[in-house]
Amino acid sequence: MASEPAAGAEHDGGTGAGVARAGDARAGEQGLLRERPAWTAEVRADDAEATRAFAARLAAGLRAGDLLVLSGELGAGKTTFTQGLGEGLGVRPGIISPTFVLVRIHPSLVGGPDLVHVDAYRLDSAGELDDIDLESTLATSVTVVEWGRGKVEPLSDSRLDITLLRATGEQAGDELVFDFEETDAADPRTIRIEAYGPRWQDVRPIQP
C-alpha cells in the first residue's frame, strides 16, 4: 500500500500484483478452501457514509494491478463501498452498480490508476472472464469485482477479499444477528478484509 494511508499499510512502490492468464492456473474449490490469507482485518462502519469513508481510506493504499473481490448480500453496501474507493482514487464520479453492463471503467482524474468495476453475478465460471477481457486492464487499473469469489482468483496471484455484512444490531446471546432484507443506510456494517498473495505479505493489516 502507499507509504502512509489511513488504513495503516505500506509497500515498496512496485508496479502491482502479478497477472496470470485465467487458463494458466484455475483455482478449484478445494484449493481456495486450503488457501490461507496473509492477514485479516475487520472494521465496523456505522452507516453508508462511514462505509464510503473507510473505502476512501483504503484506496489511498491501492495501486495499479490490485484486485479486490467484493462480496455481500443485496443491500450490504457493495456499490457504496466502491463509490468510496472511487473517491479515494480520484476517478470520474458516477459509480453505480454495473449489473446490466458487467463492466464499467472509471478513468482517473488525477493521473492514477483507473477503477474497473465488474459485476460477476451472471458469470457461471472463471472461464467466462475471458469474454470480458479483464486481463487487458488489470495491470494498469484497480479492479473491483462484485460477486467474484471463486471466479476471478486465477487473474492474479494476489487479491483482497472484502466481505460486507450489514447487521440489524440485534443480539442473540453472544451472536450478532445479520439481516440482509432491509436497506436502511443507518444500519451498521462489518467490513471483513482477507489479504492473499505476495502483494500483501509485507503490508501491515488494515486498522479500524
Automatic annotation (TrEMBL):
Belongs to the TsaE family. The keyword Cytoplasm applies. PANTHER family: TRNA THREONYLCARBAMOYLADENOSINE BIOSYNTHESIS PROTEIN TSAE. Its main location: cytoplasm. Required for the formation of a threonylcarbamoyl group on adenosine at position 37 (t(6)A37) in tRNAs that read codons beginning with adenine. Is involved in the transfer of the threonylcarbamoyl moiety of threonylcarbamoyl-AMP (TC-AMP) to the N6 group of A37, together with TsaD and TsaB. TsaE seems to play an indirect role in the t(6)A biosynthesis pathway, possibly in regulating the core enzymatic function of TsaD. Signal peptide: none annotated. Keywords: ATP-binding, Cytoplasm, Magnesium, Metal-binding, Nucleotide-binding, tRNA processing. Residues 1-22 are annotated as: Disordered. It comes from the Bacteria. This is tRNA threonylcarbamoyladenosine biosynthesis protein TsaE. It is found in: Cytoplasm. It holds the Pfam family TsaE. It comes from Arthrobacter ginkgonis.
